[in-house]
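[job 4471] stage=fold_predict status=RUNNING
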Amino acid sequence: MQHYIIPIIAEAVSPHFLTAIRALLDFRYLAQAPVITKTMCKMIENALALFHQHKKAILDAGAQWGKNGPLRHWEIPKLEFLQSLVSNIRYNGVAIQWSADMTEHAHVEVVKDPAQSGNNQAYEPQICRYLDRLDKIANFDLATAILASGVDFHAPTDIDEEDNFDDDDEFSLPSDSQPIATMSELLTHILPHGYNASGSSRAMTNYFYRASLLQRGLLHNAPSPSRTFHTADHIVAHLSRDAPLKRMTVDEASVLYQLPDLRPALFDYLAHLPPDGFVETVGGRRIGQLNATLPFTHLEVWSKFCLQTKTYHFPHNILLPSTVNAHPPSTTWPQVHSDAVIIALDRSKKWPKGGIDG
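[job 4471] inference complete, writing structure tokens
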């Protein structure tokens, strides 16, 4: 995976070598964006220029190899083509639309997978029969999801206010029906009911929908306090129902996670907690002491939780949930098993468009 290249080679190559590789990776990631602005075009050009500025370090390290051994030049056709990428984007649109990934993926779904499900005879009729049955299953899933969501396609879009419809009129809406005008609106209603538009075997969990139901009080059997909640407009956090580490004293948790300042940190958090339950700032001068008195003696500790966000260019689309681990030191993980998370302290900054400052 190319996003591992930089941390793997960071301490094994020179700074100029590392800068050249990072610039080339920036170029590739920016060029694959589904939406590219004039500013991004300039960033793509700058990334390529930065690569050319530092690429000599790669030759000096003898890392430029071809089929017949090391190369002492950069006369590579694919690399030369990169210079015309921005001009082509300006004339023809984003480059990702010309990718062959979709057609190759379609070949796998409509040819290779159905063929493997047969008996290696009469490929064409068996593939057609496989796809036909797959289509029937997809239509059945769509119909049941629409029925479960209460969507009504027969709802009138324009009704004169003077028209009087009786309850038995064929145009009247059921009390639990919801008129739909767009495809995105339809998906918003049917995705939470198990419909998977991508066609994979497992539907993606929509924690945004679950959090909205909890906020409206529509999940009456949910545990209190809620285990799924919005941390921002575009981020939802989800905890399992039961904490893996239950009924631990504050001091026990401090020793387990090797956090000697856990008690004063909790004291400071509670001291800054406003009535609405949201702390505006995190940090500043510590006021809690190591022996600070807390209004509680025990904690429930979760060693992992899920974060779900939305896509950058199309914020109405949600991404797959990511697990954030925070396991304490153990014999299996003597140096703990935890993931790094970047937290924006300035509420005026909206990640990721706000960038990283400070």
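[job 4471] summary: The chain has a mean pLDDT of 81.
[job 4471] exit 0
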